[in-house]
Amino acid sequence: MRTVEDAVAVFGVIAGPDPADPVTVADSPIAKDFSPGGRPTGTPPDYSRALNKDALKGARIGVLRQAYERDTTDSEIVKVFTAALDDMKRAGATIVDPVRVDIDQIRREQGAGTCGGFKYDINRYLAAQGDRVPVHSLEEIIKSRRFHPSVQPRLQQAQDGSENGPDTAACKAESVYREQVRAAVLKTIEAEKLDAFVYPTWSNPPRLIGDLNTPHGDNSQFFSPTTGFPAITVPMGYTRGTLPAGMTIFGRAWDESTLIGLAYAYEQATHHRHAPLMK
């Protein structure tokens, strides 16, 4: 999306309960235990009403350093992110720095990625598409060779692994793990009275497609995917002069409107994005 307003226009069309998505069913863990008012039902909210330029005024924003600080974190990313925090302060936000989600023991005891249900999910999805798609299984995708070579190892690893469904022991254990992480995130939000967390979307400048050697620093793979809680990324500036950097705003379940408001207020206060140069 070019802007937060663009994102809201698209989100307003695609948001809503999906009978094929277990996260949006009435008895999902997020719906039962982790959303302030329960799972939204019927027509989704009008998210355009969240486009508030003053949304940062009075907001409490927690800096989740554990999401992005590592040995390879790029100094320019840190500099741009620090400036973003200052911009949010000027827009009226209270920055709580740092905050921490107590997940170390949870990760040691439960581990992550034990379920690995990608093969199960994609095989059933493709099989259900019938003649609408040219391939009907992960195996057929690999045989087609119609993908970038850099993803070959991941596809082959999934194909060679177990096809774990939701009722397997591995996936049930992962479900418990996810519930514990959700509880830990919510505990920090409530203890610090936060409206959202923020952290750089990547710890390093973007790298070229196919480059698997330089540090990549993707910070989007843990907090939002593991919990199922929403997150939104907004441009926060540039590194190396022209390479864009993004800031992730992450919050509690079903609180998309709050995150949209914060992202929009920051965007309108900074206007970092510009259209890429056409060659």
Description:
This protein starts with a helix and ends in a 9-residue tail after the last helix. It contains 10 helices and 5 strands. The longest helix is centred in the middle third of the chain and has 24 residues, at 169-192. Helix 3 (75-90) links the parallel strand 1 (60-63) and strand 2 (94-96). The chain is of the alpha/beta class and 279 residues long. The protein has helices spanning 4-14, 29-34, 75-90, 104-110, 118-128, 138-144, 152-160, 169-192, 223-227, 256-270; strands spanning 60-63, 94-96, 196-200, 231-239, 243-250.
Biggest sheet strand order reads: 2-1-3-5-4
CATH architecture grouping of the largest domain: Alpha-Beta Complex
* Helical stretch tally: 10
Which percent bin holds the helix content? Answer: 25-40%
Q: How many domains, as an integer?
A: 2
CATH class membership of the largest domain: Alpha Beta
Q: What characteristic shape results from the CA principal axes? A: globular
How far is the first residue's CA from the last residue's CA? Answer: 21 Å
From the helix content, strand content and strand pairing, which structural class follows?
A: alpha/beta
- Gyration radius (Cα, Å) is 20 Å
Order of helices and strands: HHEHEHHHHHEHEEH
> Which stretches are low in confidence, meaning pLDDT under 50 for 5 or more residues running?
none
